[in-house]
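Hi R.,

Here's the chain you asked about this morning:
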Amino acid sequence: MTRPQFASRQIGEYLVTALSDGNMAASLDLLLGVDSVDAGEIQRQAGIGDAGNIHINGYLIRGKGRTILVDSGTGGLNNSGGLLQQNLVAVGVCPEEIDTVLLTHAHPDHIGGLLDPEAQPVFTRAKVYIHPLEVEHWLDNDKQQRAVERVQRIFALVRRTLNAYQPAVQLLDDSEVAPGIRPVFLPGHTPGHTGFRIDSQGQSLLIWGDIVHYPHIQTAHPDASIAFDIDPAQAEATRTALLAQVVDENLLIAGMHFGAQGFAHIFPAGDGYRVAYLEE
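And here is the predicted structure, written out as tokens:
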């Protein structure tokens, strides 16, 4: 049987594969700081039919004896996504082969796939890395009590997940998580939102998490935030600075809400930027 093809890039000693988790039904009304008509036109010009839907990716990193997963998709929570685990198996990797899970942050479309329907760990041999500020936020009882019901459910999911994976949970610092793979603190979307940069044999890739949810819109309008941002002003500042940096470095980018193409370069365009997906 021929295995399905997924977008992959060889970054030095590491093969990085974009694994689609499917789509999350959403709306451009979630965006703040950009006119919805303009946003819809950007999506139309980019050839996106369901303008409000948000695509979800995870990334598999293989090399130097390591099998690493960056984010786990939704696990099918809220009737969204849920394809990542079957796509992981489709590329020939069983969950028990994953030795490390790197979490960009703890929203449900990033950690939902960590637990099975019985709330048991899916990746039974993996260490799970997360930023300490992310843990601090979601374990804060006062914040949980003040949150609306929808967000209280996220607090409960995060706590359930962290408890299930103890003692495998590891807190990120500035250290490499594998040779040539280092966390990059990108706060704003959540307090501990983190990207992961690979530098190997002169090649580089930044997996930038949720810097954008609508890539074409939020690169053209870096000041456009989304309702999911916990600190919209900080998220905007992080996005603005990072876009300038990746253009300056001509850095290859991977994003959890890029299309299934998975990888892109960012280029200046007018007062903002544009996404150029890499094709196989």
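One quick note: The longest helix spans residues 232-249.

Cheers,
M.
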